[in-house]
Amino acid sequence: MPLIDQTAVELLAMLQAGDVTSVELTQAYLDRIEQIDHQVKAFLRVDPNAALERAEEIDRRRKAGKPLGRLAGLPVAIKDLLCTAGEPTTCASKMLENFRPPYDATVVAKLKAADAVLIGKTNMDEFAMGGSNENSAFFPTRNPWDLSRIPGGSSGGAAACVAARMAPLSLGTDTGGSIRCPAGLCGVTGLKPTYGRVSRYGLVAFASSLDQVGPMAQTAEDAALLLEVLAGHDPKDSTSVDLPVPKYSETIRKPLENLRIGLVREHFGEGLDGEVEAAVREAVKVYESLGAKVVELSLPHGKYAVATYYVIAPCEASSNLARYDGVHYGHRTDEKKMAAELEAQRRHWQDASGTRQKHWQAASGTHEELKNQDNALIRMYRRSRAEGFGAEVKRRIMLGTYALSAGYYDAYYKKALQVRRLIRGDFDRAFAEVDLLVGPVTPTPAYKIGEKVDDPLSMYLFDLYTVSTNLAGIGGMSIPCGFSQAGLPIGLHLQAPPFEEERLLRGAFMFQQATDWHARKPGGFYE
Amino acid sequence: MPISRQEVEKVSLLGRLLLGEAELDTMTHQLGDILAYMELLGEVDTAGVEPMAHAIDVSNAFREDAVQPSLEREQALANAPHRDGECYLVPAVLGEG
Question: Which residues in chain B have Cβ-Cβ distances shorter than 8 Å to A305?
Fold first, then answer.
């Protein structure tokens, strides 16, 4: 078996046994990236020299018998939403094209402390907003199983690089499904931890009450190993929870006994593709054959999850993204052009007495107030942001700003927060009856690039099975459970109560012991 | 349409965005669709339900009030698009007509 087809656990054993050096392994992945990433486009940046230097240093320390970290010598890819000190961290946005953070995200610092080799930064939807990777300001990533299709998003590069064997492990982030959807569509294993399980320090904020960092890997066992390195309390993130980190990589081999799995009735209704449904039902039979009892139940507020999510997430985003003002860092507009534009517009307002003024007054506030607000500084912000952000980011800033603006706050934001509690209550009641919820992770397999770009609402509805996990703050996972006739991967969604990542991983491991969907790899296009 | 073009233009000022004429049209149409979908929330009875702003109940994560190192000024300014040796620079606003 070629080196790059091995799992992370196997590769670490080979590194420890001296069967392979980190330099050889890193070179093998770099070669693979060189060969195929011009087609897949999973990476925004790869620095071969830095990666090889790091690998060499770890090999040297190993040879000298020095103590080494858990992931010593193993390449890991990082979603470009996670800060890497002194290295570009773009969030796939023109806004941050030249941004170099002065510090490491805690998860990046943990990988470095574990002696991993950081092999590159992966592509994504701009600021993690999107489910297809088409919102990257630089280029779309392609699905390794069919290059004309999306890899899912927003962690599309993170999923595609593992699927195409360009990295054994990668870090993704998940705000409404951004680890699980691409994992499902690319046929890899991805885990969104419970909110608070992993530090968000240095994760460039999208929606702070929903964002989590998590592992993406070929197998549940590899994901367990990576989660063990990432998880834990961080004084730099006051929402990270101070609970001991279980030994996921050890407990994972213990099958779940007397397992009760729940099927959410509403998840098998309208909109679910027949092939996806068939694969998920087949997966449920696998669990039954392993002794699980199946219970059908209802999450009555599930139908409100997408609407709730697309109020709360944009509200938080509009507030978080206010920091991109062209002053402290990020893109800044040409000030001379800005000043000339403002001057011309003011003259126009004075001349064309009437239409423009009435127009503003109709919106609210007096024309004078609004005009005064739009001074040279504000105009600099507005132009910088208009030039730096892409369409989807602007849409969410607009949605959030609107929903939080005077007169609408109670109708949208407060209402959504109330429904959020009802959604959480549904889960609490469900988990009193069952240990795991099992269902589809996306309504269809990967769709064609360009298919939904003009219809943001249909793009949002693609998240219908995953957003409620984040709203409730619980853990979720996607594992491969089959393929469509066209050869596209299908993902199985597992959800568990808060801080039950062990249960998710053990459940996933049981399934992967009984099936081999996770071991399939895309072939053909690069051979 | 639950949102007018004028409202969209006003929100673009509040959100510190500058949208062109074509963008305003598209945005009005798309936000209208999305907000219409959100009216679904209106059918949920939320009387007496406490809003849930966060998934976990962590409150008052205090630490000792001890002086700790922070970013050096040079590091903090390093990414600034326009700066001098000590400060971020912005367009003048005082004394503007």
Answer: none
